[in-house]
Prior knowledge:
3 helical TM bundles of succinate and fumarate reductases; 81 residues; 3 helices
Amino acid sequence: MIDLGLAVVLPLHCHLGFGAIVTDYLPKRKFPRVYPISKGLLIAGTGTAIYGLWSFNTKDVGICEAVSTLWNSNQDLVDNE
């Protein structure tokens, strides 16, 4: 359940942040052609990220296990020094 939550919450959090950047730095009135393109790319990128994380969770080890593996391998490197 945690992997599923992270697979949805992380891309949506990034979507909101990048959406604010697009709105602030590419206002619709100043960039009438670039604004819809950037919003469309943002939606496509968010959808791709959600699909990619879903696929990673269902066909591979999942987000939590991957982070745990990375953390433990890093700890092994530190312990060996």
